[in-house]
């Protein structure tokens, strides 16, 4: 059940991450001229949007599935409720991993980005709290 809950939480993460990603994408294209040239070389913006949408959903669902397996391990190895979650250890691990998203966006864009911070919050919520409650 944990794996299915992870896949569902991953899909939610994929859907909710489309907005912040769409906000960062123009800055990313401006920051890297090589990326801009490759996009203008003949790629349809509509087609790219559709592909990115499907890829985000698929990749985050896969990540969620793997985190569902990790949650199963956390339940067996570190049982205990806390932090408003069925498993305090797993939720704490997801909250500690969440700052990686704003940090990665800052490193790529070379400046602070609020959509990157939003992505970190969505990650913590989707995997830190939604996944454990879905697995119940």
* Main beta-sheet annotation: none
Number of helices: 7
The helicity comes to over 70%
Series of H and E elements? HHHHHHH
Can you put this structure into words, describing what you see?
Helix content is 82%, strand content 0%. It is mostly helical and 136 residues long. Helix 4 (45-77) crosses helix 7 (114-135). The longest helix is centred in the middle third of the chain and has 33 residues, at 45-77.
Secondary structure topology:
Elements: H1 2-16, H2 18-31, H3 33-40, H4 45-77, H5 88-97, H6 100-109, H7 114-135
Care to give the gist of this entry?
With 136 residues, the chain is mainly α. The chain has seven helices and no strands.
What descriptors fit this protein?
single chain; 136 residues; mainly alpha; elongated
